[in-house]
Specification:
Layout: E1 3-7, H1 11-20, E2 26-30, E3 45-48, H2 57-64, H3 71-78, H4 80-89, E4 97-100, H5 106-113, E5 116-121, E6 131-135, E7 150-154, E8 160-168, E9 174-176, E10 180-185, E11 188-194, H6 203-217, E12 221-230, E13 233-240, H7 250-253, H8 258-266, E14 279-286, E15 301-304, E16 314-322, H9 325-336, H10 344-355
Parallel strand pairs: 1-2, 1-3
Antiparallel strand pairs: 4-7, 5-6, 5-7, 8-9, 8-10, 8-12, 10-11, 11-14, 12-13, 14-16, 15-16
Helix pairs in contact: 1-8, 3-4, 9-10
């Protein structure tokens, strides 16, 4: 059987390998800093857990292999200029935006986009990094190193942030998980709630948007689409051509996790509509030490990444899948005292959303 190489050996690569084991798939995540030559075979399959990577002996071998699934997609979606251009080309809703060049003027951007304008680096940047706010009231200026390296977006007064994770096989069949409600704090995802009935009226529209994108790209595997909801309107924020943090809940809340779905698709195994169980919740563990008492909380399923703990770093997550939203609230009350003080607002947000 062909070997599947994952470009990237972070937590996503590890979870892809774990999900592939019951399918008898031979999966090997590769550190992006690896300078060793790899023993690739002609029939091997290459996928990635990330949009970008440095050029090393290993990554160069993988990127050049004819079995690299979605190879041409990464360049398009890793650059926010080409990603937004694609969204516009397909007539899908997104925040109004402009490319930032040497000739871009703050006054022109404010005239076109409003008093608050968000600059985003075209490549890189995650968890709130690589961004800069232009605020007309403060007379803030475009940083020199953002020129020719970023786009400017209109600030959207959204009601909430949601996401959709979908999958597509090489025959063009697509399936989707339920919309997920997300909480970000300082640009970092802290919690996700899935299978909320109030989001169901938006499901078909979101699926049409992501399905159109995957079809245009002839994409194979799992893709995530981050969205802003403003009233009953959806706007695409960003796309991720890979498994995504906001889809981690599927490990507990579905018969096919996003990780298994991706491995099935790239290995040309059958995919199908996932069966969703109960009510699901994911809590991201950010910059906190391991606490084994989390395991005593009702319904807790811990994934610990075994990373060095640093402030602001994702070091793990806890999934919950319960029969009712009331049971999820019960789990949050048990978990609250076991997390750092800054998680109080996260637990409060989760409880409020589940109470609705």
């Amino acid at each position: 059987m062909s070997k599947i190489w994952v470009l990237g050996a972070g937590q996503l690569g590890a979870m892809l390998k774990h999900a592939a084991t019951p399918l008898a798939l031979d999966v090997e995540p590769v550190d992006i800093e690896d300078h060793h030559s790899l023993h690739l075979s002609e029939g091997d399959i290459i996928t990635a857990e990330r949009e970008q990577w440095p050029e090393t002996d290993a990554t160069s071998q993988l990127a050049a292999h004819p079995g690299f699934v979605n190879k041409n997609v990464f360049a398009t979606l890793a650059d926010r200029f080409t990603q937004k251009s694609l969204i516009d080309e397909l007539g899908l809703a997104t925040a109004p935006w402009f490319d930032i060049t040497d000739g871009s003027l703050e006054t022109d951007l404010h005239a076109a986009l409003g008093q608050r304008v968000l600059l985003k680096r075209r490549t890189g940047g995650y968890d709130g990094k690589g961004q800069h706010w232009l605020k007309q009231s403060e007379g803030s200026a475009i940083p020199a190193d953002f020129r020719n390296q970023s786009i400017a977006e209109q600030a959207i007064a959204f009601d909430e942030e949601i996401s959709l994770v979908g999958m597509r096989d090489h025959k063009g069949n697509s399936f989707f998980y339920p919309l997920t409600l997300n909480l970000h704090v300082n640009g970092i995802l802290m919690a996700s709630i899935a299978n909320l009935s109030r989001l169901q009226p938006l499901q078909a529209e979101a699926e049409q948007m992501l399905g159109k994108l995957m079809d245009k790209l002839d994409y194979v595997g799992v893709m995530a689409m981050e969205l802003f909801r403003t009233g009953n309107k959806l706007q695409i924020n960003e796309l991720a051509p890979r498994v995504h943090n906001s889809g981690h809940w599927t490990q507990a809340g579905s018969n096919i996790s996003q990780f298994e779905a991706h491995m099935r698709a790239v290995a040309k195994l059958p995919i199908s509509q996932p069966t969703v169980r109960g009510h699901s919740l994911m809590i991201n563990l950010i910059g906190t030490d391991l606490n084994n008492d989390w395991l005593a909380v009702a319904g807790a399923e811990l994934s610990w990444y075994d990373k060095v703990v640093r402030p602001g770093r994702k070091v793990g997550h806890i999934n919950f899948c319960r029969d009712s939203q009331a049971e999820l609230i019960e789990s949050m009350q048990q978990l609250k005292s076991l997390l750092p003080d800054n998680y109080a607002e996260v637990i409060e947000w989760v409880t409020e959303e589940l109470t609705h």
